[in-house]
Amino acid sequence: MSNPVLQLKDVSIFQGDNLVLADVNVEVNKGDFVYLIGKTGSGKSSFMKTLYGDLALTQGEGHIVDYDLRKLKEKDIPFLRRKLGVVFQDFKLLTDRTINENLLFVLKATGWKDKAKMQTRIDEVLNKVAMKTKGFKFPHELSGGEQQRVAIARALLNDPELILADEPTGNLDPQTSIEVMEVLQEINKNGNTILMATHDYALLLKYPSKTLKCDENQIYEVVQRKN
Ligand SMILES: Nc1ncnc2c1ncn2[C@@H]1O[C@H](COP(=O)(O)OP(=O)(O)OP(=O)(O)O)[C@@H](O)[C@H]1O
């Protein structure tokens, strides 16, 4: 039985007056791992931004984790983002504080109060990405792959219904990309739904999954050949 966490129907996405994507019909179901591929400038980031409320949806219908994207108000965006875990290419960790403090900052900002519960949750998510012993470190003391694993842990803090990862391996070498990918695969196996934009075709081959492609203002599903 399908259980959509994301549904877009006849959506068009614009940057200013420019049409970036047209006739977008996409569904992502609970538990899915979906890739979004496409050349630079084909609209992957615009698509992701529409999903986390950074770009307003003005045409078509869009529902994501119980939110109607057409009716999304500025004040709804922080609440939408609590139900999403967003992971970026450049990690976006706060450089002036430790990993623990980075995660604590997010928990406090999203309404957590109980200190012991916050520390338990931080330990849980760091454990999921094999970074439990590194909480005392500052971001600059970690490798790129480790920083991205922490960013994934941060995305998991509020048990998101959907994780949006925009080029999460874009700044990493091939071996480190695989390590980060293993983490994403593992959390997907444990029930998290993931939509990942990438142009790393090696990862697609190594970890085949449902793939959407942005090309010539359209998004369509690519059928992967099995050899
Ligand atoms: N803030 C903006 N204002 C106007 N046009 C923009 C803006 N951001 C992106 N665009 C344009 O929208 C189109 C899609 O860009 P987008 O960043 O979504 O592509 P992308 O597939 O994510 O590329 P990349 O892999 O380089 O991030 C491009 O033609 C780009 O020039």
From TrEMBL:
It comes from the Bacteria. Gene3D superfamilies: P-loop containing nucleotide triphosphate hydrolases. One of its GO terms (cellular component) is plasma membrane. Residues 6-225 form the ABC transporter domain. Pfam families: ABC_tran (PF00005). One of its GO terms (molecular function) is ATP binding. SMART domains: AAA (SM00382). Keywords: ATP-binding, Nucleotide-binding. Belongs to the ABC transporter superfamily. PANTHER family: CELL DIVISION ATP-BINDING PROTEIN FTSE, IMPORT ATP-BINDING PROTEIN. Part of the ABC transporter FtsEX involved in cellular division. Important for assembly or stability of the septal ring. This is Cell division ATP-binding protein FtsE.
